[in-house]
Amino acid sequence: MTEETMREYYAQRAQTLEQVYQRPERQADLQEMQQRVCELLKNHQVLEVACGTGYWTEKFAPHAQSVYATDINQPMLDLAQAKNYPDVKPEFALANIYDLPDAKEGQYSACFAGFFWSHVKREEQAALLVKLSKGAGKGSLLVLMDNNYIEGSSTPIARTDAEGNTFQFRIRADGERVLIVKNFPTDSALRKKFGPLVRDIRVVRNEHYWLLTCILK
Q1: Can you list the alpha helix ranges (DSSP code H) found in 82-204?
Q2: N or C: which end of the chain has fewer CB within 10 A?
Q3: Could you tell me which residue ranges the Methyltransferase domain spans (predicted)?
Q4: What does the pLDDT look like over 48-80, one tens digit per residue?
């Protein structure tokens, strides 16, 4: 699985990506996490990375002071820009999360990434945290949200590599089956990975989702 494979897979899925948020059994947990995210990002100058279709941008933008939302896929950004933003109009940009420009002083006060961390290989996570600290600015609030593995509901794990990364098979729009990295970290694994690079780590979980907050340093 390469970064190019991942990018192509999600570009093809742009029109149907939000179907994952429509599962009836996940609605209560989703609403709880949505409320938490909006409260956390209230009045912040937010850098959003891997914004996708703008599903989460649309939810928290009315509560933020400003939003700069980025994604690597133009088809995703086209959908995100077409959403309704009556209060705070986000600025959107095509950008690679691994190649973000360094933040200017006071440019951002928070960074948000929804359902992206699980696609980052374990051996690349520390370096990405350093990049996020530079991209959002030291002292910024980092908010990450992702999903738990639920037996019988989640796509089965297809393989695990030597680094402990887990992978799932996904079907592209053209019918081709591709292997996508999808990790499901425990609270202790998150704290161990983040500990040396951030401060004030907090992890909240419900049945279907987890939410991590910390301060970048």
Answers
A1: 125-136, 187-194
A2: C
A3: 46-132
A4: 999 999 999 999 999 999 999 999 999 999 999
